[in-house]
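To the wet lab folks,

You asked to see what we're planning to order before we commit. Fair enough. Below is the target structure as tokens, and below that is the sequence we designed to fit it. If anything looks off to you, flag it before the synthesis order goes out.
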């Protein structure tokens, strides 16, 4: 059974599928909670490749984008060898930030197993916080018709 989530309207969405590896399960034979953060990372990497906003694309423009906020809500457990669909949802905002929401589904039944979000900020090469949106990011938004 699908569960309701409180999600914002996404401007862009990417889906990727992974398989739970043995090294990701704990002594209870379920995915260790910390691995879900890695699954979010897998989703961001897939999103970046799909839409041209990967970490190296950003770095080539002279910026780094550390995560400053992360949430994760666990709904159901995952086990070794299960396939997981990672839905990565780009949430537009006016600030100089990159916001994503995530919905993880068990592939066999499409049940939601976890949801979460991340917020990233822009640092320049001197590791100083950018308070205005970098021009390359504004152009990226225009390319994808994001207000």
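Sequence we intend to order:
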């Amino acid at each position: 059974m699908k569960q309701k989530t409180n999600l914002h309207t996404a401007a862009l969405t990417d889906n990727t599928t992974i398989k739970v590896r043995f090294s990701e399960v704990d002594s209870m034979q379920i995915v260790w909670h910390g691995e879900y953060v890695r699954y979010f990372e897998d989703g961001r990497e897939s999103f970046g490749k799909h839409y041209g906003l990967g970490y190296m694309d950003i770095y080539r423009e002279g910026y780094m984008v550390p995560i400053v906020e992360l949430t994760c809500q666990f709904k159901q457990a995952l086990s070794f060898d299960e396939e997981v669909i990672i839905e990565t949802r780009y949430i537009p905002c006016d600030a100089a930030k990159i916001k994503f929401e995530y919905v993880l589904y068990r592939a066999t039944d499409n049940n939601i197993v976890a949801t979460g979000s991340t917020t990233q900020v822009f640092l320049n090469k001197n590791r100083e916080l950018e308070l205005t949106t970098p021009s390359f990011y504004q152009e990226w938004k225009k390319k994808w018709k994001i207000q």
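Structural context that might help your review: The mean pLDDT is 95. The longest strand covers residues 97-106.

Thanks,
Computational group
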